[in-house]
Design brief:
mainly beta, two-stranded antiparallel ribbon, elongated
Length: 92
């Protein structure tokens, strides 16, 4: 049926093309957007930003944190009630 459904945000540096019955539930940022057929974008409601505090008084990160590794093998973690973002190494 030539239908694609994507839930999320799409960022395209150049061109994004939605063909046939493509459906995007989220938002699009693109230099050029082309839509054909019955393609549509259903924009989510803007979520409000919320601040929270964390004393890191536990052994692992909670659900409000998503540790990410961009290069190398080090993953941010909790050490002595502090969030360690880097190791003591060169070229991080």
């Amino acid at each position: 049926n030539n239908q694609s459904i994507v839930n999320g945000y799409i960022y395209a540096a150049n061109q994004l093309t939605l063909n046939n019955n493509s459906e995007l539930n989220g938002r699009v940022t693109a230099r050029q957007l082309t839509m054909s057929g019955s393609s549509r974008i259903n924009q989510f409601e803007q979520q409000l930003y919320a601040c929270f505090s964390d004393n890191f008084n536990r052994s692992s990160l909670g659900q409000n944190w998503i540790p990410y590794t961009s290069t190398g093998g080090f993953t941010p973690s909790l050490i002595s009630n502090r969030l360690r973002l880097t190791e003591d190494q060169n070229n991080q």
